[in-house]
Write a structure and sequence with these properties.
The chain is of the alpha/beta class and about 270 residues long. Helices cover about 45% and strands about 20% of the residues. The model has no long low-confidence stretch (mean pLDDT about 90).
């Protein structure tokens, strides 16, 4: 789920984002300090959203005007207005908004809006990538293997999958992908090329939103991937049965995860005896 949050007051935006994260910790949350920055992002990225929480009284482009533009750019997106004033309700409903939250925002109010969206989200994201980590690391889209132009691009994606949504810094990725090499401007330039290559590969499959990039951190959105490793950790019996002691065998840095999986597998086995 991709959620947008817009408020021109930094403290209010921080509070709104905090409440959304508590309500939906697995969602991809994108905060914006103005209507213009959000519109610029949408036009540049060319991607949609599931829910947008919009402050109404903002300088320049108001929340109402922003909502009208968002309806044009992403008709299926849900709009939730967040404001300290009730007089805008009529305009909100004319725009067929999904909801209306009064400030100060509470986690309960956010949860209620997300559970009662005007346009409910599909139970399962269509055409998710399938990622195989047991044995060698492989990626499939619509049943077909995904081709990575560079070996290190594939390894970069593998490491981000292993991190399960935790952000990785440029320095950390360099130590993994260029083991033993110093962190230089040249190596950082190569890493930026790999990240760009990975995003381009996923974009061509309509899956660019899997990658989350924030300042010096990069991560994957686990909710947008069908991964045997993730299903194993969730207790999916078919994934547990599929584990044969091998995990990302083509990468030596994956060995700590192999040990952890063995430990979990042994506990699962003992629990059945």
């Amino acid at each position: 789920m991709r959620i947008l949050a817009v408020d021109d007051e930094p403290l209010m935006l921080e509070m709104l984002c905090d409440r959304i994260r508590q309500a939906r910790p697995q969602a991809e949350l994108l905060p914006f300090g103005s209507s213009r920055t959000l519109l610029s992002w949408l036009e540049e990225e060319g991607e949609g959203f599931d829910v947008a929480f919009l402050d109404i009284e903002m300088p320049g482009i108001s929340g109402i005007a922003l909502a009208q533009r968002l309806k044009e750019l992403c008709p299926q997106g849900n709009l939730v207005f967040v404001t300290g004033f009730s007089q805008y309700m009529a305009e909100a409903f004319q725009l067929h908004a999904s909801g209306y939250i009064m400030k100060p925002v509470s986690v309960k109010a956010v949860e209620e809006e997300l559970e009662n969206l005007r346009r409910p989200l599909p139970l399962q994201q269509a055409r998710r990538l399938r990622v195989q980590t047991f044995g060698n690391f492989e990626v499939f889209h619509d049943g077909e293997p995904v081709h990575f132009r560079r070996r290190r691009t594939k390894e970069l994606f593998a490491y981000l999958i292993d991190r399960r949504g935790a952000g990785s810094t440029m320095g950390e990725l360099i130590s993994i992908l260029w083991e033993g090499k110093p962190d230089t401007d040249s190596v950082r330039s190569q890493l930026r090329s790999l990240i760009s290559d990975l995003r381009s590969t996923l974009q061509a499959l309509g899956q660019k939103s899997i990658i989350i990039k924030r300042w010096d951190l990069i991560a994957v959105d686990p909710a947008r991937v069908d991964c045997d490793y993730y299903r194993f950790l969730a207790g999916d019996q078919s994934a547990v049965n599929a584990f044969r002691g091998e995990y990302m065998s083509n990468y030596s840095w994956a060995e700590p995860t192999v040990g952890a999986l063995h430990g979990l597998d042994e506990r699962e086995t003992k629990g059945k005896t």
